[in-house]
Amino acid sequence: MIDPRIEKLAKLCVHYCVEVKPKEKVVIEGSIPSLPLMRELYKECVLCEAYPQIMPNLEVLDFFFKHAKEHQLEFVSPLARFMVENVDVHIHIFCESNPKYLSNTDPGKMAKYVSARKELNDIFYRRAAEKKIRWNGLPYPINAHAQEALMSLEEYEDFVYSSCLVDRKDPISEWKKVGRQQQKICDFLKDVDLVHVVGQDTDLKFSVRGRTWMNGCGKVNMPDGEVFTGPVENSVNGKIRFTYPGIYQSREVEDISLTFKDGEVVEAKAAKGDELLQQLIRVEGANHIGEVAIGTNYGISKFTKNMLFDEKMGGTIHFALGSSYPESGGLNQSPLHWDILKDMKKDGEIYADGNLIYKNGKFII
Q1: Exposed end of the chain (fewer CB within 10 Å): N or C?
Q2: Among 148, 139, 161, 164, which residue's Cα sits nearest to residue 225?
Q3: Which pTM value belongs to this model?
Q4: What is the model's pLDDT at position 80?
């Protein structure tokens, strides 16, 4: 018998997160272990009279990166281009049977592969900003991710489904409530110019003047719980040290410190994975911040090495190197969007135009 929470997660995604409509073209992408959730998503889309298509992810990139020649790394499939140009809804399930399977991949090959796909990213983000494509990323709990989070599978399942609020009687009503609460924060921040972030080994200033603060209430990610925007591109100055590892394609980059001058990274170092860090910031547009976000989901209280959850953690902030979300007014373009997380619960402060608005992991407005 299927876990009823899987059915509820599928209903939440299809009817609330992406709001599938009749005759829309829907792609459902996920790994083989996530088939139970893919099946439920497919059923809900069919009942909506949409046109769903399942795309299984066979997790073969490790072989590809090991053997691919340069022309293969730079090749962009016309099928991938067709999908990003024509699909109405894209649902991606984050579920890897081995989250570490790319750990020994050549960083240079990864950077080249990412760079070649810049145009696809640009098309996707433009269509999303124009509301021509809706998308959502959501989890499916399996043992591999439970082990990464240092939990039993049963504990991890409870963690995943409670984070998505599908353990509640009416998850859609619960997420609408989150949206109303977070909109108050977005409304307060919409007239702010200068933001100043202070914390351990951190003193960073940037402008958000004219930018839109977005309300992360389940429409793009599930679970959700964040407010975010794109800083003015040349306004970022100062330094930041990230508390948690930056995780990219299953590889961990630990103890990242970045220094910015007029929006650009002028110094970057990491205690572990520095080679990958240096390769990634050489990707076009990746030496600028595309997103700054504040996590508001206090139901997520533990770092799990899965940014789908971790970036929403209440009491944290995260910055993304690379592409901005055009909806926020951000202009930075890059094939990379890499979220890196910092704990703010101890000695963390955020000032808006000189006024303290956030202290030790919580808003005080």
Answers
A1: N
A2: 164
A3: 0.88
A4: 93
pLDDT tens by residue, 193-207: 999 999 999 999 999
Its sign, for the CA torsion 187, 128, 335, 54, is positive
d(CA 147, CA 156): 9
Q: How far apart are CA 292 and CA 340, in angstroms?
A: 10
- The closest alpha carbon to 330, from 294, 288, 267, 302, belongs to 288
Domain 4-170 -> CATH class:
alpha beta
Query: Boundaries of CATH 3.40.1830.10 in the chain?
Result: 4-170
Residue 24 is encoded by which pair of tokens?
């829309």
Residue 296 in tokens: 């508001």
How many residues comprise the chain?
A: 365
272 in Cβ contact with 138 (< 8 Å): no
* Residue that the structure tokens 């709990």 belong to: 141
Cα distance from N-terminal residue to C-terminal residue, the chain: 47
